[in-house]
Structure formats: structure tokens, C-alpha cells
Amino acid sequence: MSAQILQHPDPRPIIPVIDLFAGPGGLGEGFSAHTGLLRFNVSLSVEKNQAAHSTLQLRSFIRQFPRGLIPDEYYAYVRDRVLTREQLFARFPDQAARARSVAWLAELGKEPQKNVLQRIREAIGDSRHWVLLGGPPCQAYSVIGRARMSKMKKFADDHRHTLYREYLKIVAAFQPTVFVMENVKGILSSKHKNEAIFERILRDLRDPWAALPDADRRKIENPGNHPKYRVYSFSTGTSIGDEELNPEDYLIESERYSVPQRRHRVILLGIRDDYDVIPPVLEKAKDRITVRHMIEGMPAIRSRLSSGDRNGRVWRAAIRSGLTNCSANCRERFWGLGTIIRKAMRDIPDSLGAGGPFVPGGGRPERLAGWIFDTQLGGVLQHEARSHMASDLHRYLFSTCFAKKYSSSPKLDEFPEGLLPEHENAVLNESGKVANFSDRFRVQLWDDAATTVTSHIAKDGHYFIHPDSHQCRSLTVREAARLQTFPDNYYFEGNRTEQYQQVGNAVPPYLAYQLAGVVDSVLLACMKNEHNDHSVSVRT
């Protein structure tokens, strides 16, 4: 496709979307791709991380083109690397300029508030209806995060507890018709200075202007009215104040909504209370999508060796060197497992490559192909195996063979003693059990949804072992991205560690697409409400 792109105007009413704490843009991607009666246009994405900001900017660039008409020059950059990013943007200066204006590198809470208010005011323009998205950084609210931080500093002093107040300021200042706020499950049990965080957030979001300190109010020009909000659950349709509401009602279990991952997140839907609108309930899928559905058809690759990776034969020999450790005790403890391990070792090929920034081939996923697959790519991006120690490859082989036989990932106390890692937390106690981190090595099961893809995948990959024994590795960036439902042509900027972090921190775009459907219905009802001047219910 030439550099001249014929623009086809979209006749749908445009709804501006502001995305705070945007990460690589999972929420924004889902809303932008929405195909309902309204067109959601991400007009501002705010992110403090440089790599994630670069990803947001590149994706915003692509959204400047008509749907399905991505220019060839984009593929020349992400796939063939014959163009630099600067050259790509130079070919399409108007689209690049708009992308730069949308993706803003800024840290909320440190950026001067007047700058934040001005950028949002410009992004909203004179639109009567708009949507605010985002979720404050969640590490401070996660159970694991709290445990780790308690060793380093006082949890109560961590500033991430109150970053939601930056989100709250925008709600109070600009009164969006609808807001969507996402966070980790741990927020339900998190406390700050002996106060339940979740109850405080709900109380503040119901009356955001009243929740602001006087100092913040004085910085907001022309505040106008101060509407309150009703905060709804996407999954039950209930709101705070309903007698039957429980905090758990705000949890969305992603695997119930066509996301191949057991990702459980708190997602709030706020609607201005001057619109008497009841939202529809997010519709559950009839069946679940599995790891096999999403990644089985991707090009097979092998892991690398951290001690030196000369060729596939050396890699295979390194795996086979662990035969004794892998099959030790299997006959006594797990009848038949040793046979599976020995067969897997015999069948491991030495012809597999280790992948790379682009790997040709690979078919479309069995499910969500229309959402994920891009025929123009001709392969997969960012599908490169990381390096592992030979001893870890032995553990991966044992784990995948165990999963094949028992349809579960083994705990550390089920490992042969020769395979236990040399770590203080991997010591068997008097009962023959490992007390801490017993699931340090976790296989993703072919016929189940994946476990939660988190930013921890950037560390060592032990929690995200590929289920194929012949590949003996952890998941690649692209495999993790597929389990997160990012389209195959979604390119993550930065080094590989930064790419993993972006994928793990994101909201699954296909889940966001479904959230956008609910918001679409709500906004249409609000518009009808204004026209008819009476309350409207869109509950289905």
C-alpha cells in the first residue's frame, strides 16, 4: 500500500476517551476497536514509562489510518526492519503528529496539575460526552507486592496507595459521563493506615468533588457543577448502595469472558448520577478459550542456553544430560512418568531455531482469529526464546511431562530431589514438603486457561513454562501477548524485559472491547435520556 491512504470517514458519533496510567494501551485498544453505534476515539493516553509510551505512540499512529488499511511501511518497520521508526513517521507526518499529541509521557502526581488539566481540556474539546479510563499502578495493592514491600519499607508510606486520587481529580474536575477504573484483586483486602482502601475509593468516587482537599479544588478552574456518581459492577449490574452488593461483585474473572487466562481484576463502572441509567451486565461466554486455542499453532522454537548457545545439538545434549535427575524416583512415586520423560528426551529435535524479532510461518489461532490474526504479517513478531540454565531446562522437561500425565503443574515437593533448585525456599521439611514457593515452576496447561500473566514474566519465566516438552522453554513475548489477547500486529517497543513488563501489566484488550460494548449502551441511553428527559434502563 502506498504512502497515500484514502480516508473513509466514519459516520458514527465520536466519543473522546482519556486513558490514564495507560501502560501499553490494553484498555484503549479495546475501546478503539469497538464496532458499536458509537466511535470511541482515544484522544489522550498518559503513561510515565518510556518504553510503554513509545508503544502507545506507535499504536496511536496506526489508529490514524482506516480500519484494515495499515500501510506497508508499518510492516517494513515491525517485521522487516528496513525502515526505522523515524523514517516510518516521516512517511506519514500528519498521522505521526496526531500520534505524538495523543501519547503523552508524563507521571501523574509529579506533573504540574495545571499541565494535566490543560492537556485533558484540549483532548476533550467541546464534547458533551466522554469516557475516562485507567487504573493506578497496582503493585502496592497486590498481596505479593505488600509482602515484598514490608521487607523494604513501611507499606503505609508507599505513594502508590494514593495515586488513585490523581484519577479522582480528573473525575472531579471534568465530570466524565462514564469512567472505567481497573485494579488488582488485592485492592479488596488492602488497607492504608488501618483504613480499607477499597471502601475509601468507592466512597470517594461516589462524590469526587467532596473528596478533594481544598488545595486541589482551588487549582481547578471553572469547576461548574459537582455531580455524584453511581459505581456499578460490570458483572452483576449492582452498584454501591445496593443492599445485596459485596466487594467481590466488582471482580471480573477474565476466563469467563473469552480471555484465555485466569486473570481476576476489580473493574469499576462509574455513571454520573444525573443520568438515571442502569447498565447492561457483561455477558459471559458459553465456553472457555484455552492455551492450546491460542498458541499451539505458533512456530515451534527452542530455548537458548545461558552457558553458550552454539547450535541445536548442544542444546539437546544439555537437556539429555539431565536424564538421571529427571527420571529419578519417578518409578516409585509416579508410575509411568519416567517412560514419558525418556520418550520426550528421545524425540527432542535438534533442528529448532531459537526464534527472533520476526519468525515466518505459524497459523491463525483456533479461537479469536478475527481479533488476533493479521494475514499481512506472514509470521509472528517478538517470538524469541530467552536463555535458561541447563538445570532449569531439566526442570522444565520434568514439569511438562508431569503436566502431560496428570493435567496439572507439579509442586516443588513433587520434583525428584536431584531437580530441586539450590534455594533456601526449596528445601524439603520433615514432612517432605516445600513450605514456600512450592509452585516456583509452573507449566501452562494446554487445555486450560493460562494463569495470570503478570509483569513477573520479565524475571525468569519459571511461572510461565511452555507446555510442549520438545521446546523446553518459557513463553515468548508474543505468546504472552496472545494470552493477553493483543492482536499479532501490536508491537511492543523497548528491550525484551520491557516488552514482557508491558504485556504483563496490561488489561486484556479483548476484555476491554467487551467493556466498551457496555459503555456504548450506557452512553446511548444517556443521550436518549437527555432527549426524552426521563429515566432509561438499558439492562438486558
Account of the 3D structure:
This protein is α/β, with parallel strands linked by helices and 540 residues long. It has two domains: 14-42 and 106-288 and 507-537, 3-Layer(aba) Sandwich (Rossmann fold), CATH 3.40.50; 291-367 and 387-475, no CATH class. The protein is 36% helix and 13% strand. It has helices spanning 26-32, 50-63, 72-78, 85-91, 93-102, 113-124, 143-152, 164-174, 197-206, 208-211, 214-218, 291-295, 312-320, 323-327, 330-333, 337-347, 369-372, 390-406, 477-483, 496-505, 509-532; strands at 14-20, 39-47, 103-105, 131-134, 178-184, 191-192, 195-196, 229-233, 251-253, 264-272, 277-278, 304-305, 355-360, 379-384, 387-388, 536-537. Strands 1, 2, 3, 4, 5, 8, 9 and 10 form an eight-stranded mixed β-sheet that branches. A two-stranded antiparallel sheet has the order 6-7. Strand 6 and strand 7 form a beta hairpin. The chain is globular. The two termini are 43 Å apart. Residues 1-6 and 142-160 have low confidence and may be disordered.
Short synopsis of the structure:
36% of the residues lie in helices and 13% in strands. By secondary structure, it is α/β, with parallel strands linked by helices. A hairpin with a 2-residue loop joins strand 6 (191-192) and strand 7.
Give the tags.
globular, 540 residues, eight-stranded mixed sheet, 16 strands, 36% helix, alpha/beta, Rossmann fold, two-stranded antiparallel ribbon
Helicity level: 25-40%
* β-strand number: 16
Determine and state the CATH class of the largest domain: Alpha Beta
* Global outline: globular
- The helix/strand class is alpha/beta
Report the major sheet.
Answer: 8 strands, mixed
Indicate the CATH topology of the largest domain: Rossmann fold
> Per CATH, which architecture of the largest domain?
3-Layer(aba) Sandwich
Relative strand content: 5-15%
Overall pLDDT: 87
Tally of helical segments = 21
Number of domains: 2
